[in-house]
Design a protein that fits this description.
Length: 150
């Protein structure tokens, strides 16, 4: 009789621990199931003023490769203005800290090249932006303008 009672208690204890663990895991993963559309502003610093360049980057979290293009000035491969293509993967948004992070690829000179680079995951750089600070990115600054839960 004692062994049956002990076994019943063990089953009960297992069930309680299992349900508690499941609830904790579900709570931890709750935010990772959410998706966001995050708009990141691109700014230059002019004296002590950050000036919006109206070249926003718009990210969809939990999406695969997302690409964009921008007009670049003359550089080592072109003597005139031309397009540069970039892409991002691993885009996540932390709503508690109001921070976005992504892995960025490029620039490449055309859409098919950036698609291939992004899919291959070659030479990506992890970048972040938040809602309170202007974060330097080469000769620009990035700051979140909005984050909308989808």
């Amino acid at each position: 009789m004692k062994s049956q009672k002990s076994l019943t208690r063990s089953k009960w204890l297992f069930l309680v621990l299992f349900l508690s663990t499941t609830t904790i895991i579900s709570s931890c993963n709750k935010d990772s199931d959410k998706t966001y559309t995050v708009t990141v502003g691109v700014y230059i610093l002019n004296g002590s003023t950050y000036e919006d360049q109206n070249k926003d980057l718009i990210f969809e979290t939990q999406e695969g490769c997302q690409s964009w293009s921008r007009t670049a000035q003359a550089d080592n491969h072109s003597s005139t203005t031309h397009d540069h293509f970039n892409a991002a993967t691993n885009t996540t948004y932390d709503a508690n800290n109001e921070t976005i992070s992504w892995t960025e690829y490029g620039p490449e000179l055309d859409q098919s090249a950036i698609d291939a680079t992004c899919e291959a995951g070659v030479d990506g750089a992890v970048k972040t932006a938040n809602k309170t600070d202007y974060i330097v990115d080469k000769n620009f600054y990035l700051k979140i303008k909005s984050a909308i839960e989808n």
